Amino acid sequence: MGQMMKPRKTEITDKLRQEINKVVNRYIDEGVAELVPGVLFIDEVHMLDMECFSYLNRALESSLSPIVIFATNRGVCNVRGTDMPSPHGVPIDLLDRLVIIRTQIYNPSEMIQIIAIRAQVEELTVDEECLVVLGDIGQRTSLRHAVQLLSPASIVAKMNGRDNICKADIEEVTSLYLDFCTSSKRNTSHEKHTNRMFLLLFKPLCNAYDVEKS
Q1: Are 75 and 23 within one domain?
Q2: Which residues form the TIP49 P-loop domain (predicted)?
């Protein structure tokens, strides 16, 4: 009875994985099956350590390996857990096997389009003048900061009895919440007399809408 009550192991062992690979390879060679590779997307790849990168190196050598996409916003930094600097925090031997997609900084018009799409997803009404202001804020600070201002601005608009977000709402929340560049500059220039900083995270409103719909 005790053996029956014990939880079963769910981890796939290397031996079982190799046996499955042999069967799949035999099916492919016989023409019984066709392998369609999947896609593995790893965000913030600079957070992986050497053990993870070593495993990925071995996995990529397999004929059954998926298409792997790495994403990172780091330049040259140390590989996590080591003192070895490397581009994007990825070891050179793995980086040499990759092709790097060139990206460009968003211009103001592209930022406005992205903010408008995000506002539509969160079911917010934002006028054109407000989008222009948010695009300018995104250009001066970051696109992420400009998008994050939508949630508090919608709250301010509702407090003022409006359903749409206008320029005045954005200006009010901009005076209340600092971006990381402005905050770091103020802390550096007034390090000895800095008041305690409170960090506030606004959850996207679309999560609340999704819960209500479900």
Answers
A1: yes
A2: 3-107
**Whether residue 74 is found in the same domain as residue 110:** no
Distance separating alpha carbons of residues 47 and 78, to the nearest angstrom: 10
| Whether residues 18 and 85 fall in one domain | yes
Structure tokens given for 114:
């992205």
Decide if pLDDT at 212 tops 70: no
* Continuous segment of H or E residues that includes residue 77: strand 76-78
Phi/psi of residue 194, nearest 5 degrees: -80, 130
> Does 168 lie in the same domain as 140?
yes
Question: Could you tell me if residue 189 is inside a domain?
Answer: no
Separation CA 90–CA 130 (nearest Å): 40
Q: Could you count the other beta carbons within 10 Å of the beta carbon of residue 35?
A: 11
pLDDT in tens, 140-174: 888 888 999 999 999 999 998 988 898 989 989 88
Share of the chain above pLDDT 70, in %: 80
The count of residues in the chain is: 214
Give the span between the Cα atoms of 132 and 108, in whole angstroms. 8
> Do residues 60 and 86 touch, judged by C-beta distance below 8 A?
no
Kindly list the distances between the CA atom of residue 80 and the CA atoms of 59, 61, 70, 172, in Å, as whole numbers in the listed order: 20, 23, 16, 40
- What is the domain range of residue 75? 13-95
pLDDT tens for each residue of 133-145: 999 999 888 888 8
- The reply to whether 45 falls in a domain is yes
Rounded CA-CA distance 35/61 in Å is 16
Is residue 3 one of the residues assigned to a domain? Answer: no
Min mean pLDDT across 22-26, 49-53, 207-211 is at 207-211
